[in-house]
Design a protein that fits this description.
There is one protein chain. The chain is an alpha/beta fold. The chain has two domains: about 260 residues, Thiamin diphosphate (ThDP)-binding fold, Pyr/PP domains (Rossmann fold), CATH 3.40.50.970; about 35 residues, no CATH class. The chain is built from twelve helices and eleven strands. α1 crosses α7, α4 packs across α5 and α6 packs antiparallel against α10. The termini are far apart.
């Protein structure tokens, strides 16, 4: 059913988006919190329930469509963005959400992830990052920290980990955000902003795997350290953090790097003002990287980047209209028999 001005959107509740299927994740898994956040946020969006579709690949996160009372498709490993692209092209009125994990989306699905971002297809991607393979029982993933001992790295991981938001910036993503499973209010606000974005919205959700990688994000998110180890990015506001809001982020013009400074030691105009709407890939890349590699900077949460750019499915529809106007609709059989074909007798 298409959404039109003549259809009045019902008043939905969180319960309307629960399928009633028994949720089967490990006790303590952060996926429960993310599921609750999505089911709570969707009634607040503008779409009719029948115009939602959740597409997943393979992994713990990929059970998600079963628990949503919407349309959904549990696809194959790493290929959810491709399926979602096809669906959005054929049914542009749908609100399409890709649910993936750090293994599914960044390992076997890495190329699909990069290309859907650069194309700017009008879909939403939620990547649950627990820095581990959970479904297959605890192997290291592309985002696992150096030295992490797992079943597949018994002597410690030696791969340099991927930083999903940084990869997204390099791929030309128009919307990049980061939140966490335990930050219900912040995650809700982030989902709203992703839904409002036209183009590919990418949201990395830091998610605790209680069984195989418990506490992976405690150095940032544990309550006793969070105020000094996390900065909440807000458009148009100074990048200030700390329990007493006494620290800030500035650009060192000599080294062209970001650094944390005490507000009592620098002028107010030295503190960066967050601007996710300006196409500054270098700065967004640095914001996405903060907190990694022992740089002494806080981890950035919130919307890192939000740009308006041409949308792939709109461009495709325009091109299709132009070609049909010139050549007519054509026939599939004629297409299959055209070009470099031959007949075997």
């Amino acid at each position: 059913m298409s959404e039109t001005a003549t259809i009045e959107k019902p008043v939905y509740t969180k319960k309307d988006f629960s399928s009633g299927v028994e949720v089967r994740w490990c006790p303590g898994c952060g996926d429960y919190s993310i599921l609750a956040a999505v089911q709570k946020a969707l009634p607040e969006f503008e779409h009719l329930r029948e115009n939602y579709a959740f597409i997943s690949g393979i992994g713990c996160s990929s059970r998600f469509p079963y628990y949503m009372n919407t349309y959904g498709f549990h696809t194959i490993h790493g290929r959810a963005p491709a399926i979602a692209t096809g669906l959005k092209i054929m049914r542009p009125e749908l609100s399409v959400w890709v649910i993936t994990g750090d293994g599914d989306g960044l390992s076997i699905g890495g190329n699909h992830f990069i290309h859907v971002l650069r194309r700017n297809v009008d879909i939403n991607i939620l990547l649950f990052n627990n820095e581990i393979y959970g479904l297959t029982k605890g192997q290291y993933s592309p985002t696992s920290n150096l030295g992490l001992k797992t079943k597949s790295t018994p002597y410690g991981a030696i791969d340099t980990p991927l930083i999903p938001a940084r990869l997204a910036a390099g791929a030309g993503a128009t919307f990049i955000a980061r939140s966490a499973d335990m930050l219900a209010k912040h995650l809700n606000e982030t989902l709203h902003k992703a839904n409002e974005h036209k183009g590919t919205s990418f949201v990395e959700v830091l998610q605790n795997c209680y069984i195989f990688n418990d506490g992976a994000f405690d150095p940032y998110l544990e309550k006793s350290v969070r105020d000094d180890r996390v900065i909440y990015l807000e458009a148009g506001k100074p990048m200030i953090f700390g329990k007493d809001k006494d620290k800030g982020i500035r650009l060192n013009h000599k080294t062209l790097t970001l650094e944390a400074v005490s507000l009592s030691e620098v002028a107010e105009n030295e503190i960066l003002i967050h601007d996710p709407y300006h196409n500054n890939t270098a700065l967004h890349f640095m914001l996405a990287s903060m907190g990694y590699g022992g740089d002494g900077l806080p981890l950035a949460l919130g919307v890192i980047r939000s740009l308006q750019a041409p949308i792939y499915n709109d461009r495709l529809a325009e091109q299709e209209t132009e070609v049909i106007a010139k050549k007519g609709k054509g026939r599939l059989t004629d297409l299959l028999k055209s070009g470099e074909t031959w007949e075997v007798k």
